[in-house]
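assembly run, all chains below
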Amino acid sequence: MVASSDKPRSFQEIILRLQGYWASKGCAIMQPYDMEVGAGTFHPATTLRSLGSRSWAAAYVQPSRRPTDGRYGENPNRLQHYYQYQVLIKPSPPDLQDLYLGSLEAIGIDMEMHDIRFVEDDWESPTLGAWGLGWEVWCDGMEVSQFTYFQQVGGHDCHPVSGELTYGLERLAMYVLGIDHVMDMPFNDPQAPIALKYGDVFRQTEQEYSRWNFDVANTEMLLKHFEEAEAECEAILSQEYDDPKTGKRIVMAHPAYDQCIKASHLFNLLDARGVISVTERQAYIGRVRALAKKCADAFVQTEAGGWTPEGTAA
Amino acid sequence: MPDLLIELFSEEIPARMQARAAEDLKKRVTDGLVEAGLTYAGAAAFHTPRRLTLALDGLLAESPTRREERKGPRVDAPEKALEGFLRGAGVSREDLKVQDDKKGQVYVAVIETPGRPAAEIVAEVLETTIRNFPWPKSMRWGAGPLRWVRPLHSILCILTDEAGASVVPMEIEGIKTGNSTRGHRFMAPASFTVTSFDDYAAKLKRAFVVLDAQERADHIWQEATNLAFAQGLDVVEDKGLLAEVAGLVEWPVALMGEIGADFLALPPEVLQTSMKEHQKFFSVKNPKTGRIERFITVANRETADNGVTILAGNQKVLAARLSDAKFFWENDLRIAKAGMTDWLDQLENVTFHNKLGSQADRVRRIAALAGEIAPFVGADPALAEQAAKVAKADLSSEMVYEFPELQGLMGRYYAEAAGLPAEVAEACETHYQPLGPSDAVPGGAVAQAVALADKLDTLTGFWAIDEKPTGSKDPFALRRAALGVIRILLESQARMALEPQFGAQLVRHEIKQADGAAAAELAALEDLVEEIAKHGVFGAALRTVMDRLNGEAPLLDTLKARVPDAAADLLSFFHDRLKVHLRDQGLRHDVIDACLAMPGNDDLVGLVKRAEALGAFLATEDGVNLVQGFKRANNILTQAEEKDGVSYEFGADVKFAETDEEKALFAALDGAKGKIDAAVAAEDFEGAMQVMADLRAPIDGFFEAVQVNSDNQVVRRNRLNLLSTIRSTVLAVADLTRIEG
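ok done. output:
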């Protein structure tokens, strides 16, 4: 584990220290999910694994895309592609707040000098049919994390309850490193032979995606893809649990959920293109939520979701 | 007698829930204890972000023994009855006494419930309280079934008397009661034990926790005003924010920081809203310039650098927030100065309600109606229409998207920036008013016209699609809108008949509903709106347009009943709201009902004038007696009409009058109707009441001296016809049959 007494010097060092810290606390360090998602919560390691009775502890970085937040790389804080750090532990341990505060110390925030506050913030994801209670965590008035006890996901009550932590990595790192514009933030060590700033890595892609997201993306194609993803999700879930070829029980919750994630991202792209009216918006969100609920229903019929051959969830 | 101390220690409780929760804890625990026979001398509840605390003093050490005598069957009753009684009372036969009773000798059971120690009762009551606590929103955590607002960590529960303190043993889902707690999360996290409430409060303070929320709030306010005063500045008072901030900290430390010079040109409301909503900062004003120049933030701890790092961090966050606000403000100003057309175009894409169309549709309807209403409130129709067209433009602005609570206010700033007339800018800000019974109505005539049109469009819209408020459900705040219309009309004394406005706007909604109908039919609907403006009456307007079209208008045909029905229903909704409003002002509901029954009841100002005059008249002796006389006349007349199967309306002739009293009444009634009609037409309701007052003595005299049901049929009919004259005369003022008593 990286020594935590000294201040980190780069964006990546903050990520590495979080990885080290949560590994030392027993989390499985997972990798980002290989699909476009709007937030770390969409990773099946959170959405699906928060369901059912089995214990779970995972931490990972998740690249997240919010097409409407694109600012061509010019806004000091807003990006259409950014990183979230996500921790999910089920059941939530009694000392989760202390574990969380330990992670802030690990990235160089001195609790003796700063004002850390837990401010009410109930979390809700209409697209995932999920909600929980918790806080946004403030450090000197800045929101540095979301802290949530999941109560419901995909329309299912969470038993046991998962504790979820989400760190907005760029904002947190800018604060710790004392940087005012995200593009000026050292990505790797500023003393490295080839020192790279966040802007060296992402300014150009922010421009490219901002243009595409706002003005170029083919909306007819996106709409078609949305409908295809929706149809495929339903088609997957309509299959028998027992696979006729292998004779095994194989509930395809994850492949179906991939299609749900796709639909969700396609909706975000359509939204950024400004082709979804306010009333349609609710209808689209409802359609994605319906998929998420069906995927959750399927997942609890799998072993990872707590299903056992004896017929009842353990 | 022992004292009881309870502390429920949890993860951070939302600030807005704390005070209520402390009260609920006090109420539930004390109610439970008293019900079990444990009385106490005093109780106090406290709350911090991490704890709810209850301190009771002078609690009984045990509940008193209860003795109850229960009467049983007679001594000679069958054995079965006695057995049943013994079972029910839970006593054996040896415990029974025999007593004399009316029925003879009966058995009496003496049931004694021994007292129970306080600890036992407290443990039961506390467990019940925790399991059934009325949090507005609660949650589970970990793998357990317990619900609390956030995870509950420990329970302190001790009884303290001369002999010392003892823990009340209890366990709930693995959490055992004890005698220890913790101090400030960062400044004194170690656990410590306590022996009494005084010991607890003192040790908490040493551990950097101020237990009493009021003490925290006072401390914050004191520090904040001192910091500001030292620089010659004033803190902007905000009681809600103060209470919230006091609920976010256990050890408040106020720090004052600068707002960057770049941001000082932002409207003060923007600065204040941004700082309050996002950062929970107090605004600090310079009394000389009136501008907000600094902020106060409240930290939850002391630091070695006296808060320098904390303040620097807060200042930086604020700068980021305000640069967003400044960016919005500058972009918005650019669009405003260019005439707001971008915003107005965007309103086309904003749905107001899926059946009522976009905000732009709504703006067009409101503008048309505002122009029509303008003359009634003394506004220039062109200005009112212009104001209505831009009044909703700020809904598309970035600032209002970010801070919805600034809608209207930003509209005023942007209208001013666009160089629009002052009346238009004022209407942009105030046309939402009144927002509640205590909110002021818009002051300017243009603003009133827009406010009326806005509210009437909303009301007629939801009536057109039949989504009226039911019971407690009023999601579109239609009651508030109707009361707003009522108050604007009454306070501005605007004489406007509502029904033609309902009719015109209902038809405008029908035009939207008929989207896609043939062009000719839509044109007919447009015609209809114009005709309503001309005729003032829906039916006449509809006939005119139908005649013009030779009946070839199936769409219009469907409106024949629908629009008048909706308008009548909406008017009765207004009358209900008006009754509530006037009742709050002390006017009797039967007086209002009597006036509602009169023609012209959609002109609320006229209606209220009449009701007030009638109310004042009925408070006089003349009024009370006249009503009695009228009712007597009406009763006799109604009975006779039912019995005879005819109606007595005409032909009362003084030549058949037999007595002086009868003749006097003829004389009094002669011309009274004419005077009343004239007074009512001139809206001299006091005058009309005076004419009625003058009738009182002759009517009384008539009833005293004259028997209506004479054997002479000619005389009888003549007298009934005379009574009918009383009725028709008086009913020209108000429907007195609705007056109670």
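The beta strands of chain A are 28-29, 56-65, 81-90, 116-120, 123-125, 130-139, 142-153, 156-157, 163-168.

The interface with chain B takes residues 76-77, 91-94, 97, 111-120, 122, 132-135, 139-142, 149, 151, 158-161, 163, 175, 180, 274, 277-279 of chain A (CB under 8 Å).

not gonna interpret more than that til we talk
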